[in-house]
Amino acid sequence: YTYSLAIADTQNMAPAKKSKKSVENLNSRLQLVMKSGKVALGYKTSLKTLRSNKSKLVLIANNTPPLRKSEVEYYAMLSKCQVIHYNGSNVDLGTACGKYFRVSMLTVIDAGDSDLPRSFAILLV
Questions:
Q1: How far apart, in whole angstroms, are the C-alpha atoms of residue 74 and residue 81?
Q2: Is residue 105 helix, strand or coil?
Q3: Cα distances (angstroms) measured from residue 124 to each of 69, 85, 102
Q4: Beta-bridge partner residues of 2
Q5: What is the pTM of this model?
Q6: Whole-number Cα distances in Å, 123 to 3, 28, 116, 118
Q7: Could you tell me which of 68, 80, 3 has the C-alpha nearest to residue 42?
Q8: Fewer CB within 10 A of the end CB, N or C, for the chain?
């Protein structure tokens, strides 16, 4: 019985390493966007940029309420914008942005030197 639990734990550990590496890669690209690009932080400003069709990519923290998350996904679908579900809480997303406050979601308006909007599919595979 304990042997089967050990197998289950090792099976769960393998994908965690891959996702951790992709999160680190996403964080480094996000830092480059914050330095060289234009970003809107927060729910209200994200909705404004989605409505005005300015955003290229939306990042949503994993502890965002489901109703709010689905609303943003709906606006993103209407504006033909890509959505990434960030594998971390709003505290982690704020830290990844280099801010000292929580960020539930952010939209990339101009990527700057980063290739984040084009390469996000590679990060999630």
A1: 10
A2: strand
A3: 19, 10, 23
A4: none
A5: 0.75
A6: 33, 12, 9, 10
A7: 68
A8: N
